[in-house]
From TrEMBL:
Function as written in the Swiss-Prot or TrEMBL entry: Specifically methylates guanosine-37 in various tRNAs.
Protein name as annotated: tRNA (guanine-N(1)-)-methyltransferase
Family as reported in the entry's similarity comment: Belongs to the RNA methyltransferase TrmD family.
Keywords in alphabetical order: Cytoplasm, Methyltransferase, S-adenosyl-L-methionine, Transferase, tRNA processing
Subunit architecture: Homodimer.
GO molecular function: tRNA (guanine(37)-N1)-methyltransferase activity
Coiled-coil residue spans: none
Binding annotation for S-adenosyl-L-methionine: 116, 136-141
EC annotation from Swiss-Prot or TrEMBL: 2.1.1.228
Assigned GO CC terms: cytosol
Domain tRNA methyltransferase TRMD/TRM10-type: 9-228
Length: 236
């Protein structure tokens, strides 16, 4: 087990601790880890086996392909670290992760994150230890580690002091219920394409209006589901 002290406490239960911190060790998240804004502990699930072959998985009840991670081994690993923090099982069957849930988690003490492998984990473990199942999208990864890295990346950047420019976080996609407006930077003209005149006008009222209308246009075009939810929230 590796531990670093800090604010938000992440404990990751995995068969591949060497995958961490991985991308979380660089840039904003890596600096925040070094500075102690959050801490990361990995727990090797295999250390909680009791048989001589150190088996973490077994064949699925009812037959079929693949292997299932054993409830008893996982329960020992979870119970070793459980302390009231939310317990999250990375799972394609889970509720899709939202920015709102990321904000809630970032405001809490941390999380215990279980990374599945093979066909997943014995259902009784999820029920008995009260795991919240979280999906990062409608596709199947080979393991929960990359999903845990995604979830932690989204959380860590919201921790106090991690993001330099707080305003940039507040206008970002999903924070307002809309996708974000497009961005441009110098030069004013590149390959015959000009930065929209309004952004060079210095008229902040007009710039805000343009950004808002672009955010609405993009959301309507690309994410009709978000657009409908946004309109419904405005009617309330
Ligand atoms: C090969 S997947 C198992 C897929 C499972 N048999 C199913 O069809 O739902 C192995 C592990 O990867 C993780 N995983 C895969 N896709 C994921 C996703 N979209 N979001 C979060 N975790 C995912 C889970 O921890 C899962 O237990």
């Amino acid at each position: 087990m590796t531990t670093v002290d800090g604010g938000f406490r992440a404990t990751v239960l995995t068969l591949y601790p060497e995958m961490f911190p991985g991308p979380l060790g660089v840039s904003l998240a890596g600096k925040a880890l070094q500075d102690g804004a959050w801490s990361l502990e990995t727990v090797q699930i295999r250390d909680f086996t009791t048989d001589k072959h150190r088996m973490v998985d077994d064949t699925p009840a009812g037959g079929g392909a693949g292997m299932v991670m054993k409830a008893d081994v996982l329960a020992r690993a979870v119970d070793h670290v459980a302390d009231g923090r939310p317990k999250l099982y990375m799972s394609p069957r889970g509720k899709p992760l939202t920015q709102a849930r990321v904000r809630e988690l970032a405001a809490g003490p941390g999380a215990i994150m279980l990374c599945g492998r093979f066909e997943g984990v014995d259902e009784r473990l999820i029920e008995a230890r009260n795991f919240e199942e979280i999906s990062i999208g409608d596709y199947i990864l080979s393991g929960g580690e990359t999903a845990a890295i995604v979830v932690l990346d989204a959380i860590v950047r919201l921790l106090p002091g991690v993001m330099g420019n707080v305003m940039s976080g507040e206008t970002e996609s999903f924070e307002t219920g809309l996708l974000e407006h497009p961005h441009y930077t110098k030069p004013q003209e590149w390959e015959g394409r000009r930065i929209p005149d309004v952004l060079l006008s210095g008229n902040h009222g007009a710039i805000d209006k343009w950004r808002r209308s672009e955010a609405e246009r993009l959301t309507k075009e690309r994410r009709p589901d978000l657009w409908e939810a946004h309109r419904a929230s405005l009617k309330k």
